[in-house]
């Protein structure tokens, strides 16, 4: 039991219960173990390392919200490929995509096609889910007129799959026809890509996710809704998380680096700036189109 912090805490709690509340022994034991108990029961109270790092021997590229901008993704891929070719064979290269591949820009289908068929050679590719992929899934399962997805760039995605719907029919009929034609138009490989997107990725002292996390909730029990959608209270939270959070989702003019999070959604679909974060050991730098 001496080697198990949690068991030791439970033992101490039992001892505390055997003494009169408020007594000297009670106070001594309770205060001695209070900090350790808090850290075990609530890991969000544990501060991250002084300087976050990825494991030795790794270089990690993290790409923000693409939103149908195949042109910008091609530029970043070419730049990353040039760097990767100069690295020694022993270095492990990982490319993490933070989601929102689709909508708003004019070539969502082309983006997904590139990611499936032309990944960066020599790199492990990690694909996370964004709220836009989640909304498209919801529309395909429950098509409704004025669905959020159709109002937030879904029409552009449908066009990229060459789906067009008659304007003369009712809203309900247009919605159903759009959904049916999309199901026919989206290739099986794309459907499998969407179905297999991950909600997060951890490496070293970093936790990568589309939108962010809810403060004071352990990372391992964060809800999918928060991981995909959260803004506040995440963005204004000044405390520490278990790891440094790397995220997109909330548009900013330039990447933001704070002690507890790094945001890299630079609004590519309208700004023309697609951002890639590069992590190696303790180094942090950016590549921007």
Q: How do the helices and strands line up, and which of them pair or pack?
A:
Blueprint: H1 5-17, H2 24-41, E1 58-63, H3 70-85, E2 92-97, H4 108-117, E3 123-127, H5 131-141, H6 148-160, H7 171-185, H8 188-195, E4 200-203, E5 206-209, H9 224-229, E6 244-247, E7 256-257, E8 261-263, H10 268-271, E9 275-280, E10 283-288
Parallel strand pairs: 1-2, 2-3, 5-6, 6-8
Antiparallel strand pairs: 1-9, 4-5, 7-8, 9-10
Helix pairs in contact: 1-2, 5-6
| CATH homologous superfamily label of the largest domain | Metallo-dependent phosphatases
| Overall tally of domains | 2
The total of beta strands comes to 10
Q: State the share of residues found in helices, binned by percent.
A: 25-40%
Low-confidence stretches: 1-20, 35-49
Largest sheet: 5 strands, mixed
The total of helices stands at 10
Give the termini separation: 55 Å
**Rounded radius of gyration (Å):** 23 Å
CATH class of the largest domain: Alpha Beta
Mean pLDDT: 88
Order of helices and strands: HHEHEHEHHHHEEHEEEHEE
- Strand line-up in the sheet with most strands: 3-2-1-9-10
CATH topology of the largest domain: Purple Acid Phosphatase, chain A, domain 2
Q: What percentage of the residues does DSSP assign to strands (E)?
A: 15-25%
Structural class: alpha/beta
Shape descriptor: globular
The appropriate CATH architecture of the largest domain is 4-Layer Sandwich
